Amino acid sequence: MTTSAAGEDDGPASLQLEESAGFDRHVIQYIQRAAATGLYEIRGLGAKRRVPHFDDLVFLGASLSRYPLEGYREKCSSTTVLGTRFAKRPLELATPITIAGMSFGALSANVKEALGRAATEVGTSTTTGDGGMTPEERRSSRTLVYQCLPSRYGFNPDDLRQADAIEVVIGQGAKPGGGGMLLGQKVSPRVAAMRTLPEGIDQRSACRHPDWTGPDDLAIKIKELREITDWEKPIYVKIGATRVFHDVKLAVHAGADVVVVDGMQGGTAATQWAFIEHVGIPTLAAVRQAVAALEDMNKKGEVQLIVSGGIRTGADVSKALALGADAVSIGQGVLVALGCNSSTFVKDGAHVSAEADYRRLGTAPGYCHHCQTGRCPVGVTTQHPVLEQRLQPEVGAQRVRNYLKTLNMELTMIARACGKQDVHHLEREDLAALTIEAAAMAGVPLAGTSWVPGSGSESAQAGMKVLERQS
Amino acid sequence: MSQMTGEKVFDLERSSVRELNQFLHGELTGVGTITVKNPDGAHSLAVGLDSPIRVEIEGHAGYYAAGMNQQATVRVHGNAGPGVAENMMSGRVEVNGFASGGAGASAHGGLLVIRGDAGLRCGISLKGADIVVGGGVGSFSAFMAQAGRLIVCGDAAEGLGDSLYEAVIYVAGEIRSLGADARIEPMTERDRDAVRELLTAAGIAPPAGEFKRVASARSLYHWNADANQAY
After folding, report:
1. Distance from CA of B208 to the nearest CA of A (A)
2. Per-residue confidence at B3, pLDDT binned at 50, 70, 90?
3. Closest approach of chain B CAs to the CA of A194, in angstroms?
4. In whole numbers, what is the pLDDT of chain A averaged over residues?
5. Nearest Cβ partner of A152 from B25, B106, B223?
6. A positions 140-199 inside 8 Å of B (CB)
7. Closest residue by Cα to residue B118 from B145, B68, B157, B144
8. Angle, vertex CA A265, rays to CA A261 and CA A271, nearest 5
9. Which of A150, A185, A397, B191 could form a disulfide with B187 if both were Cys (CB 3.0 to 4.6 A apart)?
10. A37 vs B: CB within 8 A
11. Chain B residues near residue A206 by CB distance under 8 angstroms
12. pTM across the whole model
């Protein structure tokens, strides 16, 4: 209870401004908006609330018991090979940091081109999205992963054959169990034509594939894709993180070369709010379960694991790898590098304020999640002919290249500090957790202890004792 | 073995589906017809073709026969499993018997002819191809179909044309029920011409009785509070 210095507002007066924890101003606004519109709120980007994340882990750098590598003189490899299980042509990338699938439609053609150029310059892959492959991104990307999605918008055998890998998308972290969505403002003539849809409609994509149902069918579908492409290309299976242990096993059983696991912090161009915040599990928990599934099947190393969903920094990448991922995918971080949520955009080498356009959307730089409107003030998530000019491919490519290079440098720096000559040698033993939640989810000890909540015979026995006492 | 001799008969008792498909993806100048013997329900037969050849599958096919077809004519002299001619771009695929679920799923172009009945979700997510079914179709056929035409000479089961976009369905028999946003519209002369042309192209005799036209009411094209959970 607060008391004012003057004492006049004591007691009853301050109670007049007591906010409810359950019905706080956010909830009140939510209910009133729902009552006014009768429709759920749709927005972009990923989960905004705090969930256990890579921030809750720290590395145990080398000291006396471990030997670090010299940063300048001693090499640390970040070469990453994906798709070694069945594909004739696995991908060899210079870094484990890849660019996640994002659609032309959600993003402008300029952005897709910028991503391709940046990925090519740093030696990594980029990925198409719901809506097919644009010539701009194929031309600019040395290594392009082609998504096969439930909607099959723009999906065709010519693009399949000119892809470097194929990603069968079962779901995404922002909305496991949900299909794609693109509101009418972004269904421009070009987007509509690529997707065989009427212009300007609110597009809802299917959430299930049209020609298969369940994991046994998926095995046959994957074989068909391999037959069409003469077994050349790695086939990824992407899942939104929910029952990760079982889903990863089923994906491996279905014949995936690579499994992509996308946690709940993963972004979206447009999804119902309740989906973004309330469906799926955090990336931190998902990595551990995915690795456990691969280890359980003795497929670790044979089937590669890509982790995505809220990865922002080189530290995040390092932690994902230490937990057992072979690579990561980044979507939102890349968009932020392009200028998402920046107060300015670059025109002819000069920064121009975009604040007025943020205000028009009812938001401000640092808070914006209005990708669904297609009115992105910095020209990233838009199809608007004027706004999309705010992101020029050259400028965007340079920023994304810088961002990816920074992340890779941070990754190799941390790996060297842990005494590793290869970033893929980072291991769970290099980590400690700062919270009990993170320790339990990631399966690493709470810092300063050897305690991993929920694992080991001690806690299992303790649990049994509790059960015995109760019975 | 067939690659060495240039022979146009593949006996799947002696060679693999992989050999068949790799042959069909290779240089095929001068090749007219390829006959596939003993298919025995194998999956992914003649998938990813991209040349104007003719493939005769002498028996039943499993999943995804003629998947993603371009240019080629593929005939299944038997029944076809799920996803026959899925995502076809052009050419012609014929099934002389019955087809299982998802026939012609997401096909962008070409003509799919099924002389018998088709199972669930025939023409799901159709994107421009034409499908002619001599018999009936199962539930949720043409679900979310975006463009193209589906002709059903027999009956259609529940939920026909659910969440249709611009594809059009013609049904000669009974329609058990329509899906969300699908409605029956009057047949115009253009519709009758289209049906006649497609039946002729398919080589299927017109059934007795008048066709009904099913198309989208377009009430789900924009988010709308009064749609009452139809999404």
Report:
1. 32
2. very low
3. 11
4. 93
5. B106
6. 151-152, 155-158, 160-161, 183-184, 195-198
7. B157
8. 100
9. B191
10. yes
11. 125, 143-144
12. 0.93
User: CA-to-CA distance for B19 and A286, rounded, in angstroms?
Assistant: 40
Secondary-structure breakdown of chain A: helix, strand, coil percentages, each rounded to the nearest 5: 40, 15, 45
Specify the 3-state DSSP secondary structure of A347.
Answer: strand
Kind plus residue range of the DSSP H or E element containing A289 = helix A283-296
Q: Which residues of B touch A223 (CB under 8 A)?
A: 43-44
Which of B89, B222, B223 lies nearest to residue A157, judging by beta carbons? B89
Q: What is the CATH number of domain B40-227?
A: 2.160.20.60
Residue A39, chain B, CB below 8 Å: the answer is yes
For B57, the 3-state DSSP assignment is: strand
Q: Smallest Cα–Cα separation from A172: which of A194, A149, A153? A: A149
Q: Which two tokens stand for residue B125?
A: 């997510």
Contacts of B67 in chain A (CB under 8 A): 224, 228
Give the C-alpha separation, A218 to B9, whole Å.
30
Asked if B222 and A196 come within 8 Å (Cβ–Cβ), the reply is no
- Each domain of chain A, given as residue ranges in start order, spans 54-425
Q: Can you tell me the distance from the alpha carbon of B92 to that of B67, in angstroms, rounded to the nearest whole number?
A: 11
The superfamily (CATH) of domain A54-425 is Aldolase class I (3.20.20.70)
Residues in chain B with CB shorter than 8 Å from the CB of A191 are none
pLDDT for res B4: 39
Whether B95 shows a pLDDT value over 80: the answer reads yes
Closest by Cβ to A157, choosing from B62, B63, B70: B70
Question: Tell me, what amino acid is at A330?
Answer: I
**What one-character DSSP code corresponds to residue A154?**
T
Residues of B in contact with A271 (CB under 8 A): none
What are the residue ranges spanned by the domains of chain B?
Answer: 40-227
Asked if residues B210 and B195 have their Cβ atoms less than 8 Å apart, the reply is no
Q: How many angstroms separate the Cα of A452 from the Cα of each of A57, A312, A444, B99? A: 13, 26, 6, 54
CB contact (8 A) between residue A210 and residue B124: yes
More confident position, B163 or B231: B163
Q: A88-126: per-residue pLDDT in tens?
A: 999 999 999 999 999 998 999 999 999 999 999 999 999
The minimal CB distance from A204 to the residues B89, B124, B231 is found for B231
pLDDT tier for residue A183 given thresholds of 50, 70 and 90: confident
